[in-house]
Amino acid sequence: MKPSILLTNDDGVSSIGLWAAYEALTPIADVTVVAPATQQSAVGRSISIFEPLRANKVIINGEQAWSVAGKPTDSVIIGLYALKLNPTLVVSGINIGENLSFESIMTSGTVGAALEASNQGTNAIAFSLQVEDQGDKFDDPRTYGQSFGEAKKIVRDVVSRVLAKGFCTGADVININIPSEVKGGYEVTRLARKLFHTGVEKRLDPRGRPYFWINGPLIEDAEEGTDVHAVRKGNISVTPITLDCTAHHAHAAIEKIFLP
Predict the structure, then answer these.
(1) How many alpha carbons lie under 13 Å from residue 39 in its C-beta half-sphere?
(2) What is the pLDDT of residues 219-256, one digit of tens each?
(3) How far, in Å, CA of 67 to CA of 48, rounded?
(4) Pairing relation of β-strands 4-8 and 89-96?
(5) CA nearest 75: which of 47, 34, 42, 115?
C-alpha cells in the first residue's frame, strides 16, 4: 500500500501551487486534498472557534478535494478529526511566495497548517516557492504564471526521502523554501530574524480621514547559514522547526529576576 498524505495550503483549494504539489505526490502516495475555500495567507495558526465550519466536496482539475470554509489549521483539523484520514504525513503548499525567517513563519498560514498537524501528532512538511515579483503573492493563485516544474521535482524528492528514511528526530516541521531559480542543492539552515523591512504607508480617504497599509521591501540578505541567505544564493533551504517556543537559554536570567 502507498503511504497516505493530507495535502493542504493557505492560498486556497484552487491554487495552482496546491495542484502542482498534488501532481508531484500522487505517483508516490494516496493524496487527499483538504484546503481552505478561499485565500488565507498570513493567518498563521488562527483557528475558527466562534463559528461553524462547512467542508464541501469539490472537483478541481478532474480530481476530488475538500473545500473548507475556514483557515489552514481548520482544514487540517477537519481532515484529521472529521474526515478521519489518519495520514502518514501532512504536506502544506506549494505556497506562492517564500516563508523564511522568524517573522514569516509566525504569520504564515502554510507553516501554520504544518505546525497544527504536528501538534496533533502527524509529521508535516511545508513547501514554499520564492516569487520573482512580490506582487505575485497578491494576484489570483489560480493563474500564477511562474513554472512549478522544478518545484514539483523537489516536492517529490523531499517527500520520498522522508517517507523512506523517516522524519527527522527533534523537529516538528520541516520547512522547505525553493528559490525561483535553483542554482545549487539542499542546504540545511536556521531561521533568519527578518524577511522584510517593515514599514507603514499613510494615505487619506476621499473624506480626508487617514488609513494605513503595512508594507516594506524584502531584506536584501542575511548571515551565512540562514534560510534567507540560502534562498538568495539559489539553494533549497531545509529548516527543521520546533513547536517549543521556550527560550531555554534565558532560564538563568529569568531566575535572577523572579527567584530569591
Answers:
(1) 10
(2) 888 899 999 999 999 999 999 999 999 999 999 999 99
(3) 15
(4) parallel
(5) 34
SS3 content of the chain, % helix, strand, coil (to 5): 30, 25, 45
User: What domains appear along the chain, each with residue ranges and CATH number?
Assistant: 4-194+222-245 (3.40.1210.10)
Distance CA 21, CA 15 (A): 10
Q: What is the CA radius of gyration of the chain?
A: 19
- Cell reading at 176: 522547505
**If pLDDT is split at 50, 70 and 90, which confidence band does 137 have?**
low
Q: Which amino acid is at 244?
A: D
Distance between CA atoms of residues 40 and 47, nearest Å: 12
pTM of the model as a whole? 0.93
User: Residue 188: beta bridge partners?
Assistant: 238
Q: Residue 230, SS3?
A: helix
Edge to edge, what strands does the sheet with 30-36 contain?
55-60, 63-68, 30-36, 4-8, 89-96, 124-129, 173-178, 236-241, 186-188
> Is residue 216 predicted with pLDDT exceeding 90?
no
Strand partners, 98: none
CA distance 53 to 31: 22
